[in-house]
Amino acid sequence: MAKSLSGAGLRGQVAGKTALSTVGKSGSGLTYRGYDVKDLANHCEFEEVAYLILKGKLPNKGELAEYKAKLKSMRDLPAALKEVLERIPKDAHPMDVIRTGCSMLGNLEMENDFSEQEAVTDRMLACFPSIICYWYRFSHDGVRIDTTTDDDSIGAHFLHMLHGEKPRELHEQVMHVSLILYAEHEFNASTFTARVCASTLSDMHSCITGAIGTLRGPLHGGANEAAMEMIEGFTSADDAEEKMMGMLERKEKIMGFGHAIYRESDPRNEIIKGWSEKLSKDVGDEVLYPVSVRCEAVMWREKKLFCNADFFHASAYNFMGIPTKLFTPIFVMSRLTGWAAHVMEQRADNRIIRPSAEYTGEELRSVTPIDQRD
Ligand SMILES: CC(=O)SCCNC(=O)CCNC(=O)[C@H](O)C(C)(C)COP(=O)(O)OP(=O)(O)OC[C@H]1O[C@@H](n2cnc3c(N)ncnc32)[C@H](O)[C@@H]1OP(=O)(O)O
Ligand SMILES: O=C([O-])CC(=O)C(=O)O
């Protein structure tokens, strides 16, 4: 019954102001500070877009070089954080690892006051890939990796630490695109979490830790992992169609499809789909990409549901040799920019976020003494 209320999930309600992005407005599907995401994905590196989101303008060459050099210099992890990461078991979920890593960093390098908000954000941007890969390689391969690579970009740094070798140019390029597509998305659930936390005047690490926990769920960022688990169970496009029809008959939710705001398509899909196709050819894949394309066709034909940003990210990441459980942490490495910018925006014009609830419980009643209760 609650779902039929027009306000369920706060859908359609304006919960605050932002100058950071527009989602699903007519004319363009997604813009960051006035730029179409397709334009950004075609022409920019992720670090340019991070700069745009966090500092308000696209950097010129000198500003970008300086920003990248600064981020590069902050990739190493404090010894106490490495110790914590080494104690987290191999079967932990990497989203829990990055959540703990972010929280621990907040203990070691606390944001003392809001004048440090940009500095602590840059530090997180630089070292989140190190946190993920340090834990992953220690727990899975028993090695203590060097997290101070000299790779030019955050995406290349991540792939280098993960695979133990410098990534190919194609893979670095895909990481730029992927991180750009995931960077910012208005008042999605994880960003709203960050803003609620910020509205109490809490610190940046607490806001980001809460947002990571919210992104983890399969209805939000976790959908890229869930989509991968589904498509790798299909042996061919025909097999995918048959099994999906069964899932739809059983009214199962199909991860990587649908959206709370977009009605006809997610503008990020066609971009990542194009790169997934390119990577599929590159690795000589004859199953995963055709399976994914068939899933898209079946969902549209049967339900008018379209792929969201997560669906083709699954195959794209898989073609680059990225383990499925690291998919959502990559989303974190990127969305951190949007989250932090929203925290800064909330702080700049704050009122504590505290909505009201429609009470559906018992009428007022009095306490029965404990020895008289059933
Ligand atoms: C980066 C991101 O976070 S993008 C989102 C990632 N999440 C996923 O891919 C998870 C799968 N998708 C979903 O669960 C939903 O589409 C959400 C959470 C994204 C949006 O939820 P809502 O805003 O409630 O969806 P919406 O109101 O459009 O749903 C309309 C109907 O379509 C159904 N539907 C929506 N998505 C799906 C899906 N993926 N599979 C099957 N049915 C679906 C809903 O169940 C609903 O039917 P009902 O009214 O009979 O319950
Ligand atoms: O906007 C949303 O609800 C979910 C989403 O696509 C995102 O956060 O990228």
Automatic annotation (TrEMBL):
<dbReference type="InterPro" id="IPR016142">
    <property type="entry name" value="Citrate_synth-like_lrg_a-sub"/>
</dbReference>
<dbReference type="GO" id="GO:0050440">
    <property type="term" value="F:2-methylcitrate synthase activity"/>
</dbReference>
<dbReference type="InterPro" id="IPR024176">
    <property type="entry name" value="Citrate_synthase_bac-typ"/>
</dbReference>
<dbReference type="InterPro" id="IPR016143">
    <property type="entry name" value="Citrate_synth-like_sm_a-sub"/>
</dbReference>
<dbReference type="GO" id="GO:0036440">
    <property type="term" value="F:citrate synthase activity"/>
</dbReference>
<dbReference type="Pfam" id="PF00285">
    <property type="entry name" value="Citrate_synt"/>
</dbReference>
<feature type="active site">
    <location>
        <position position="259"/>
    </location>
</feature>
<feature type="active site">
    <location>
        <position position="310"/>
    </location>
</feature>
<dbReference type="GO" id="GO:0005975">
    <property type="term" value="P:carbohydrate metabolic process"/>
</dbReference>
<dbReference type="GO" id="GO:0006099">
    <property type="term" value="P:tricarboxylic acid cycle"/>
</dbReference>
<dbReference type="GO" id="GO:0019679">
    <property type="term" value="P:propionate metabolic process, methylcitrate cycle"/>
</dbReference>
<dbReference type="InterPro" id="IPR011278">
    <property type="entry name" value="2-MeCitrate/Citrate_synth_II"/>
</dbReference>
<comment type="similarity">
    <text>Belongs to the citrate synthase family.</text>
</comment>
<comment type="pathway">
    <text>Organic acid metabolism; propanoate degradation.</text>
</comment>
<dbReference type="InterPro" id="IPR036969">
    <property type="entry name" value="Citrate_synthase_sf"/>
</dbReference>
<keyword id="KW-0816">Tricarboxylic acid cycle</keyword>
<keyword id="KW-0808">Transferase</keyword>
<dbReference type="GO" id="GO:0005737">
    <property type="term" value="C:cytoplasm"/>
</dbReference>
<comment type="pathway">
    <text>Carbohydrate metabolism; tricarboxylic acid cycle; isocitrate from oxaloacetate: step 1/2.</text>
</comment>
<dbReference type="InterPro" id="IPR002020">
    <property type="entry name" value="Citrate_synthase"/>
</dbReference>
<dbReference type="InterPro" id="IPR019810">
    <property type="entry name" value="Citrate_synthase_AS"/>
</dbReference>
<protein>
    <recommendedName>
        <fullName>Citrate synthase</fullName>
    </recommendedName>
</protein>
